[in-house]
């Protein structure tokens, strides 16, 4: 068991290391951040002065070593723009993002699993078609359009829901829906497919032949099995959710999250922040996937005991 | 089962033209109403995309600054000749939608093709060779999964500049890891199949196994992924535009119209609504068709 | 009373010395004071006592200032000559690189500040300075506490770079509001500073929150989550006006959106080409279409705020497509593509203007192409044309055209503008003549040079709009630099109902 | 005697496709009725109709009645509502399915799955239900029942799983047990155990059994009465003795004839013309790879020190239970897996150490046919490409002659020429296996290794395929290494037989010598387990205990000695 844990951890560390290294070199290729730090109307002479001040005149290898060194003090360097430790900046953003992510996952599971199961069971009736039509439509709309539409309807016109930031539970409603809309759609479809697979399995027939009520058959025998496959996708999807979708949502709802930080630091070439933000997101994704793996192994006894 | 052959359309392979037509008719008959709808939408969109220059009433970039932000027909201040209204520079929203659709579909298709070749190739190599190559490629997949793609797009556009060519590349890279995972998974599953062993037993070389036996068998899952990828690319493209790094003005794509036009949602919603509906139609149709394809593929497998 | 402001952007640091960005300008005036204060209610130049109560030249190059007594910093310390000397010399004799850079273009002439006694200081310049008050009113020389700053990190006796870095996260000044919370890029919270030397601040608390999306900002105003929002684009104004509970105020911004042309680009070397590119732009139409006609299209690089140096009579730039066509023909324009670089979002309507301009070029036969990038291309040899802004850093042509187009200034050093000895001579007269008329004459000569071999076309002076709840009475003051969120006494009030 | 179950004029349809037509039969109490017929004849459809599970599979009962008349009164199952059905299922009627591997839920413990029945029908608490489950496992003679309830299905062997299924079905002492091919997926030895068990339990509980199978041998073992189905119609309904003695319907006779019977003789040995294949001392080793634990060094020898020879034009049958290493041996012979040691000679040439090019040569002369005819044909290739592929690889045919060759090949395996443009899924199982054989024949090989080539086929079709192989051997003088777990099939095609057990060959010799005079205890057990299609000669075995090794554990290093001419037995066969 320990060996497995150690191997997983090593793999995680290697993956993360590769990611930060790649990001480091990619960012250096994408332009001298000095232009972004100081903006316009500065003489060449001053530009060089500042380049030196921010340590951007050193060779790329020196910078890389320094960057690696910055891991050691736990601060991960200073932001070019904000002039404070990167760790502070990122730490500030992680919790709001995580809150939004968790509520998004929660909503997704809450909605898509019952709907997916229903769509599988009532595959041939209008219920199934209706659910699937919604699932497709939900996925077909860019999430920022959904978000802005909600803003216009529920905040701008009706004034029902607050818009800015993450102050109260009410603030979560729109961003959560906007963020998880596509995932709900995707997972509903996935749950349906997984359930359809499971429903045709022999053990479902066995369960029915025992005289079990349909509810037990579907939930205990069916869903338990489907959940294994659902879990494995969820892990992958969450990664996308954690970063890609949230950038847009965070910007529209002025949510002080990490997605927004990622993009703004990339646009402003605030490399230290960018690198650590990427690392943080990657870490989250890798950890979530590891957790999903373990949950997966836990849910599926064939894996849990398979190696014993 | 008795020892008689199953019914089969004779001559289907000899007369491809006729077969394709018959195929189409068969497909139509087999589809339910929603799939038919998707087929219809797809066909119409394709046709108007291809013939955009003929259909469009104006040049997509022709401005008339004095008539900017005019609403579509049926509203106050509607201006003749601009059916869907004008945008913030007085360009015809309809013309931009049509040209935008054309470019969006072209970008999405090219992007999906690149992703297919890139990801599919790597997945194939990974699945067939295994070992260290597999570890490296799958490591790259893991890394890719862990980095938000918007970021990669940002960096690529920053490094290579934001031209249409680079955009195609960016959209092409998007989703490679999904192709790679799928192909690798399928390949590994196929490698266990007796017919692969049968080919090896017949003396087939690695290349022959890869191209003649494995490749044709991963076409179906790839096609499904391809359709999903297309709709994801359309969505990604609009998200990039939202972030200001999408296809650059004055060129119109559906995504950039929505992304850039969003500031006008409260005041001139038609600028966004028209292309948003187009996006919705494209992704909706593509996904329904993709899903349907998947079902058909599955039936094949289940029939055995 | 409390106020919540939804801003499109919030600074990532707060240090008036190193900053001159539009984003930063919003914040400093509430927190910091200058030695010499300006009457912001008028575009006329009227100097008022600030932290200095009186000032006079004791030699042609030395000014002596009497400091106000009883001024307290937000951290409770008294302001003395030491603080002032420290604040000034951090710029005049900068050791901290970002200060050096900021001081170079506008404070080059200032050599040192010295303490005479606890409430008297002297400032020494290299050459006789015609703009004394103007340059003492700069944001860059706002007064900060010496001991506090030096003590932030490292040796409390020495001003290290890190002290300044730390200061920019925990700014302390003498202004009517103290910064009680600052989350870089996200939020600034001000609370009234009861120890303020001047008139008591009208707000108990003001919170500026970042709300990057236009639609979100306007919605927040509607839902009451913000009382005042910044950066309302002209196209959105109708939205505010249609709501009876809201109102918008607009003010011409003390800056020009300009179009710059690289005089050293091989294809643009011929001034006739650049003249043509400039003549082809119908700025009035741009104004009507993009700015509801409310922006100001200048005939030359001049602003009303320059006071005596406001020279609208100069005709440096005009719209004349026929002439443009003719010049192009003479110059033998062969249809090459002229690229127009623009940032996607930085300038209000910048992207739209870029597209419109290329269409106007097309009308005279120039093939234009918009290149959108968030990257500053002003220093690239490949640059052909791009948009830019020439802000008024202070109310003098030197604070606007002067900073950007000086010999060895940013434009020349970036290689897209050339000056020669003659230009430099004229420049000297413009910068240092004590006689206003002489300065005006020199400026007119500079404008002639610009007209003959144009590196720039000022498009218009945009206007900026703020929207607020009906019961908030606030508007930007005409005498201030652009974007300042001024909540000092007399600047904001509330309708009582 | 009153009939427990009477099915009257039953019609079952899948959509417009009638799977069962006008079927009537009765199951008397305490008796066993066997439902026989080939694949697709509607056996399962009938069974599922009785439990009304057929609707779940997409079928409908379109006519007829199913009356259940146990002590608790008469009900018409076709008219029951869902509630009533749930009370019936698992309680008064229960069912055991064919596939023990997939019929248990993989994520629930055995105890969970069994106790459900008690909780549902006997209103027990969870604890009581677990205790009852343990007893039920005991009653089907599963050793260590207490431990089993905690285990998951994948931790049990196929035989044990089927016992669990049976225990579960019998939990509530049903009046009727429906067993749908309960032993088909199992090894002969395990099958024998399960059949014995069922018979004993039937006597114990006093229930009626509806037994579904396609294996006439099993019918003879277990049934009192037999109903023969074909294309969903009843063709014969008779007492078992009557049926076997004098089958009335033509189809019944055909079915009997196709059923391989042990002791019906082997083909004559060909004239000795030297050996095509000589294997000596071959061992094949697998690295064990756990999923969670990367155990290194752990290996398992799937084939241990095996030597065998195969004469030209001869068929060597290789038998042994599942997992004994038959397939591994077959693959190693063709060097599809690299053996760890030993030598292989093909037609006198040592091929043990051939390189890539040399292997191509080997495969030019030695081909393989696999068990699953569907999976071993690439579904994306047309027949003319499929069957000629080996020939193409070895450049024996140009691309223009390809179609001609294909036509010739399919004709030689008894198919119409015009099939060459079709794809694999457009053929039935037997036809697909013919294609596989045609493919192997395309290079005119000297040796064909056939790994369970007919195990997936119905008896009558298997018969056709083995007949085809015999015919080809006659015509082309090709040698077969024929692998099967069905010793009766092996007898029909092989001149010589090798018996494999736990990776080793324990006995080898002329077919008749082995069958009539088995020396090794494992061979004897194997032969004893084979069901005889003759109700008069029912086996009367004792209760086999699945935990006890069914044969002595072989000692390492033992060698074969010649017990009779050409008949070698391993030494430990004392
Ligand atoms: N789910 C289904 N949908 C449509 N047709 C079906 C389905 N299940 C079975 N059939 C058809 O019904 C007929 C009877 O099938 P059934 O499963 O009862 O045969 P069987 O005798 O049990 O065969 P086997 O020995 O292969 O189990 C066959 O023709 C089969 O193709
Ligand atoms: N690739 C492999 N890796 C590890 N072990 C294997 C591998 N293939 C087979 N084995 C093991 O080798 C042993 C022999 O397997 P083999 O497939 O040869 O048996 P078989 O006699 O053909 O069985 P069956 O009748 O089920 O096909 C088994 O214990 C099996 O688990
Ligand atoms: Mg069946
Ligand atoms: Mg095998």
UniProtKB/TrEMBL annotation, chain A:
Main location: membrane
Keyword Transmembrane: yes
Domain ABC transmembrane type-1: 94-292
Record's bilayer topology term: Multi-pass membrane protein
Sorted UniProt keywords: Cell membrane, Membrane, Transmembrane, Transmembrane helix, Transport
GO terms classed as biological process: transmembrane transport
Keyword ATP-binding: no
Subcellular locations according to the entry: Cell membrane
Gene3D superfamilies in the cross-refs: MetI-like
Membrane-spanning ranges: 12-31, 100-122, 134-158, 170-190, 228-253, 273-299
GO CC terms in record: plasma membrane
Domain of life, per lineage: Bacteria
Family: Belongs to the binding-protein-dependent transport system permease family.
Protein known as: ABC transporter permease
Protein species of origin: Oricola cellulosilytica
Taxon lineage: Bacteria, Pseudomonadati, Pseudomonadota, Alphaproteobacteria, Hyphomicrobiales
From TrEMBL, chain B:
Official protein name in the record: ABC transporter permease
Bilayer topology: Multi-pass membrane protein
Highest taxon, organism lineage: Bacteria
Keywords: Cell membrane, Membrane, Transmembrane, Transmembrane helix, Transport
Listed GO CC annotations: plasma membrane
UniProt similarity note: Belongs to the binding-protein-dependent transport system permease family.
Transmembrane segments: 33-56, 105-133, 145-174, 267-293
Gene3D superfamilies (UniProt xref): MetI-like
Organism: Oricola cellulosilytica
PANTHER family in alphabetical order: OLIGOPEPTIDE TRANSPORT SYSTEM PERMEASE PROTEIN APPC, PEPTIDE ABC TRANSPORTER PERMEASE PROTEIN
Main location: membrane
ABC transmembrane type-1 domain: residues covered: 101-290
Keyword Nuclease: no
Keyword check for Iron: no
One GO term (biological process): transmembrane transport
Subcellular location: Cell membrane
Automatic annotation (TrEMBL), chain D:
Gene Ontology BP annotations: peptide transport; transmembrane transport
Signal peptide: none
Subcellular location: Cell inner membrane
Catalytic activity: glutathione(out) + ATP + H2O = glutathione(in) + ADP + phosphate + H(+)
Keyword Kinase among UniProt keywords: no
Domain ABC transporter: 5-256, 286-527
Keyword Cell inner membrane: yes
InterPro entries reported for this sequence: AAA+_ATPase (IPR003593), ABC_transp_ATP-bind (IPR050319), ABC_transporter-like_ATP-bd (IPR003439), ABC_transporter-like_CS (IPR017871), Oligopep_ABC_C (IPR013563), P-loop_NTPase (IPR027417)
Chief location: membrane
Key words, A-Z: ATP-binding, Cell inner membrane, Cell membrane, Hydrolase, Membrane, Nucleotide-binding, Repeat, Translocase, Transport
Bilayer topology: Peripheral membrane protein
Transmembrane segments: none
Enzyme Commission number(s): 7.4.2.10
SUPFAM superfamilies assigned: P-loop containing nucleoside triphosphate hydrolases (SSF52540)
GO MF term set: ATP binding; ATP hydrolysis activity
Region of interest: Disordered: 531-553
GO cellular component, one term: plasma membrane
Pfam families in the cross-refs: ABC_tran (PF00005), oligo_HPY (PF08352)
Family: Belongs to the ABC transporter superfamily. Glutathione importer (TC 3.A.1.5.11) family.
Role, per record: Part of the ABC transporter complex GsiABCD involved in glutathione import. Responsible for energy coupling to the transport system.
Oligomeric and partner information: The complex is composed of two ATP-binding proteins (GsiA), two transmembrane proteins (GsiC and GsiD) and a solute-binding protein (GsiB).
Protein name: Glutathione import ATP-binding protein GsiA
Protein source organism: Oricola cellulosilytica
